[in-house]
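Inputs:
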Amino acid sequence: MASQTEENYLKALFHLSSEQAAVSISALSTVLGVSKPTANSMIKNLKDQGLVYYEKYKPLLLTDTGKKAAALIVRKHRLTEMYLVKKMGFGWEEVHEIAEQVEHVKVAAFFDRMDELLGYPTEDPHGSPIPEKDGTLNQPYYKRLSDCEKGAHVKLAALKQSSKEFLAFLDDRGLNLGADLFVEAVEPFDGSIIVRYSNKRESLSLKVSEKLMIEEV
Amino acid sequence: MASQTEENYLKALFHLSSEQAAVSISALSTVLGVSKPTANSMIKNLKDQGLVYYEKYKPLLLTDTGKKAAALIVRKHRLTEMYLVKKMGFGWEEVHEIAEQVEHVKVAAFFDRMDELLGYPTEDPHGSPIPEKDGTLNQPYYKRLSDCEKGAHVKLAALKQSSKEFLAFLDDRGLNLGADLFVEAVEPFDGSIIVRYSNKRESLSLKVSEKLMIEEV
DNA sequence: ATAATAAGTTAGATTAATCTAACAAAAAGA
DNA sequence: TCTTTTTGTTAGATTAATCTAACTTATTAT
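Outputs:
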C-alpha cells in the first residue's frame, strides 16, 4: 500500500490542514525536513494516486480518500500513544517517538486490540481526538487559555503542541490534562497570564497559554 | 543505523546459521524472496560494514558484531511476540506478522518495558530463546520428538517452525507448549509416531514430529 | 572425467526518495 | 508600480534496493 514515506506526507498534510486552510509546499517541506523539490515531486505522486488535489502554484488539499487515509494513520498514532501511557506506564513526553514508528505497522488487528484494551478511548494522552475506524474525526471545540479573561474558571483539555520540551515544561509546573485553572490576572503588556491551580500560582507566557486548550467549567 | 532491509538480512543470516554451518547466497536469497544478485550486493554492503565475513564463492559468516546486531533484532522480535500473547491476548499464530514489523522500532525503552512487564521471560511463545540485552543467546538443548523411542515420556518444549499453518495444525490437535507426551508407537515404515496426551491419541507424521522439540520428563 | 546442473558474479537498468543549482511565478514591501 | 523576497518548478544527479540477462565457478551425477 502506501510506503512509510507516503504515510508521513499524508500525516503532515493532515496536521497542516487543521491549522491553515491553504497548505503550501514550503510548509510541508519544512515540517518534513525535506527540500522543496522533494516535497514537490512527492505531491505529484500523491496526486497521481488520487490522495491530494494539486495544481501548479496552487495550495495543497487532501482529497476525501487522502483525508481518510491520513486520519487512519493518525488514529494508529494516537491509539499507540494512549496504549503506551495507560498500559505500559510511559510518560506523555516519551510516547511520541515510539508511536511515530509503531503507527506504520500494517496489521489492523494490532490497533483494534489496543483500542479494545483501552476501552475505546476518544482522546490521546495530550487531549487530541482519536479518529474513528471509518476515518471520521470528532474534533471537539476548545478555547485557548490565552483567550480567557480574568476570573475565568476552566479545565485544561488538550495541548496544541506535544514536543518533549513543552511537556517537560508542563510536568515541571505540575500541569496535567484535566487540571482546574483559575485565571487570576492577564498582563496586557505581554499577554502573560497568571493562573492558580492545585495550590499553585504560576505565570504563563502567551507562547505557552496559546498552546493550552481549555473548556469552561 | 541499519535500515529495515539490512536488519532483515542480518536476521535471516542469524536464523540460517543456526541450522546450517555454511550459509549460501542462494539460501539467503530464497528465504528473503529476493534474487541472488540482490543478496550478493547486499552481502558486499554488510561486509563493508564489518557485519559479515565474505570472500567470493565462499559461504557467508556473521562477524561477532553482526551476530550481536542480529541477536538484538531477534530479541526485539521475540519479546514482542511474547508481549502480544501474554499482555494483549493474541494467539501464537497471529503474532509473527506483527512482531516482524514492530521489531524495527528503534526505541530501546519500548522493548525494555515489555521485558519488564513480562517479568524478563527467557523464551517466546513458540519456545524459542530470547537473546539477552548484550546479544548473548542461551540456546537450550532439545531433542526432536522424531528421535524418541516407544515408551518415552517427554514434554513439548519448543517448535522448530512457527508458520501459521503449522500452528493451526497444532491448535487443531490441542497441542500446546508444555504438553506431556507419551510415545505409544513409532511406525518404522514412514517414521510416523503415535502419541498420547491429555486424553488424546494422535498419529503425527515424521514431518511434524521432527519440528516438535522436547525435553525428557 | 566430463557433462549437466546449481550457485555465484558482473553488468546494466529501474524505482523511490532524496539532493543542489538554476530559473520562474507569486507575494510582499517600498 | 516596481523591486525584492519568498515560493514553486524543472532539470539533472545520487543512493539504496531491487530486477533480468549473460557469464563464470563450483558441485553433482553419470
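Remarks. Residues 3, 5, 34-35, 37-38, 41-42, 45, 56-57 of chain B lie near DNA strand D (CB under 10 Å from a C1'). The mean pLDDT of chain B is 95.
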